[in-house]
Input
Amino acid sequence: MSEPFDLLIRNGRIVTPDGVVSGDVAVTGGTIGAIGDVTGPARQEIDAKGLWVMPGGIDPHAHIEQMSGMGVMNADTFETATRSAAMGGNTTVISFAAQAKGERLADTVAQYSTRAARGAMIDHAFHMTITDMTAPDCLSDLAALIAKGHRSIKVFTTYNIQLDDRAILEIMATAREAGALVCVHAENDGIINWTRDRLIAQGLTAPHYHAASHPRLAEVEAVERLCRFAEFLDQPIMLFHISTAEGAACVAAAQARGVPVWAETCPHYLFMTDTVLKAPGIEGAKWMCSPPQRQEADQEALWQALASDTLHIVSSDHAPYRMDENGKLSAGPDAPFNKIANGLPGLETRLPLLFDAMVSHGRQGFDRGAEAFARLTATAPADIYGLAGKGRIAPGMDADLTLWDPDRQVTYGADDLHDNVGYNPWEGRTITGWPTTVILRGKVIVEGGACRATPGQGQWLHRPTLGTARPHGTPAPEAALAQTKG
Ligand code: DUC
Ligand code: ZN
Ligand code: ZN
Output
């Protein structure tokens, strides 16, 4: 008699890279052994009749145990953030190792690694955020860390932690040589500061003026500039949180020119408009993020850009701050918008919101919603960021699986998430389709509405090579000449 499988998930609708298969998934030693009509004993069986079996969600953009650009600490630790992520159907997260000014990048990464190793309940990797190129050994540390398997970098063009164009080019050139993807928060700092200061000077300080203080053209200018940098050096970039129709159009135009540009958007741009900021009094602060939510026409354009593969990923941009004096209101209960920390919690709600729209309601552009959902939320992040063994249900892959009940309806409450934020920005919204069971490398980490994962159970994911976000060809002739050695 053959060895029993460790786990057998029976009778599900399994979303594989080759389409939807009705049947079973067998797991041995933390990886997927067989898919389809599987016979054989198993130590543990789960009946998935009537459920979708999806790849575990991969959220590639979350801020965890990190200081904001304004110096306010996140509400979440690795433990609380990854517990929340798991409850929302995720098995992998990429967060940031964010360099403090003057700090050696090697020290930054070592500190975040220690904290994640202690607390993380799901698998994880880091984007290395560079804020100070004058810190000792910055570029040599960067090259060494890339070689050790940290294959993505983050830079800002605004937010008090921006780098100038020259520094960004230097980092991109280092990334080109060592093999890393450069992620960018792309908004023009001058446009934002000029507008913000004029609004504040007129006394226009309520949370909803935050939207006006981040003009659409600030995004457009920086996205276009970064696309040209990518073109100049033939260096892959990932444009984070595209929020406007024009931003998405810049990305599409660069891609059409053959530039190695990838891009993402987030649920708060797909499902919210800037009217959320107009809640009474200071309440609007709950939804303040950068870039801000935009208009309905932008939502349509972003969905179309996802459907046409101009945008490749929907991430959460989880950036958790409590609505109290340690979080959003650290500058007082009536703080002007420019003194309120930016960001929303999103690790737990990203997948249910998207499942509801794409699978349960067949959002425009997706006639095969379940497959598109798996691609945007798991397969594409795994492929683009080089997370080998993750993101798809296929033999030999890690057994990271989420079982979805398509009939379960949940209406979000005021404070029902499992993070440490104390409010749910989606309060009152009804979701159809729910992640009932989450499995990480063959171990059940969520079931029956409870998290069974333990802190430290998550593993750091070594990325020995770039993912699919690779250079396309050759740098511009002047860049190639400038980089010629000796
Ligand atoms: N915007 C970001 O770019 N990061 C964190 C929070 C936010 O609102
Ligand atoms: Zn950002
Ligand atoms: Zn972010």
